[in-house]
Amino acid sequence: MSSTDSPRVPPAVAAVAPKPGAVRVAEGERLREVGLPGLTLTIRSYPGTREGLPPALYVHGLGGSSQNWSALMPLLSDVVDGEALDLPGFGDSPPPDDGNYSVTGHTRAVIRYLDSRRRGPVHLFGNSMGGAVATRVAAVRPDLVRTLTLVSPALPEIRVQRTALPTGLLAVPGVAVLFTRLTKEWTPEQRVRGVMALCYGDPNRVSPEGFRAAVDEMERRLRLPYFWDAMARSARGVVNAYTLGGQHGLWRQAERVLAPTLLVYGGRDLLVSYRMAARAVRAFRESRLLTLPDAGHVAMMEYPDTVATAFRELLADVGALEESRRGTASQAEAGGSAEPAEPAEPGEPGEPGEPGEAKDSTTYRTKLGS
User: Fold this and answer.
1) Strand pairing partners for 124?
2) Parallel, antiparallel, or unpaired: how do β-strands 145-151 and 122-127 relate?
3) In 232-257, which positions are buried (b, 16+ CB within 10 angstroms) versus exposed (e)?
4) Assessment of whether the complete model's pTM goes beyond 0.90
5) Cα angle at 102 between 91 and 241, to 5 degrees?
6) For strand 261-266 and strand 287-292, is the pairing parallel, antiparallel, or unpaired?
């Protein structure tokens, strides 16, 4: 089933719809619109603390926006020049002209942006659906990706968790309309509590200010005429991507990724199974795994400091690896001989430790450079 097989909100209607309110911009962030053929993207940037830092691009998940990265971007501003985009139909970006909300459609939007700004190669981050998009970008355009960081990436699962089924049902034509009718009496506060219960390992970690900001954003989104259309079609796009086989399958594309990869999984994730971490480590050839037993689906929002530290370690190891390779190449050119470094024994990653083994602890395994 394609992403354009049912009635949708025409682009002309979305274009003339009044803006339903200002989007929140945190201190230090900048917001701008970028026009591209067939789509307009809103870009949230957190500039690096000095000139010349390598670029980073952050891609949110289903129902999210660039605001999902506002806690992490400042923590990395001394090592990368950060930008987070609102995918078409989400955040403050209007729907795409062609109504294509498939994973491939979102992937094209990311690639078009990077090509138009000549920002690649970037340190690419993705969460949930954005993780699937980032994986596809890294597989089909390796020239655009320097490193890849995936937080609970939406990669195909044989046994989907029961708690993820309601989200998947949004992909069924008519379900979004039915859900809208059934929940029309829900307040924005009730909706936000439901989303946080689904996405956070511990919703109590959200501050009162953060909760209020989420409610304001929910109120804004519900006034968008295309909100549920974008949600339903993007959910359908993820389900369709799960069914693809061959070279277009997401797991096959994960195996093609050349960029060093950091994988982040939460032990209390109700949308992406914690068990998938082991398969992901095997699929991505140069990968390391960070598991957070108490985190849910959005670890970069719940534990931004821990995710930032893991990314810094990835940067350090990638730099050391590149330096080692340059040194070996120089010796070879000079006619010298160099004993190859003994690779670290990756072994089988196996299953991550059971959630809750140690409160707020992390389990770290790596096969980078193996």
Assistant:
1) 57, 148
2) parallel
3) bbbbbbbbbbbebeeeebbbebbebb
4) no
5) 125
6) parallel
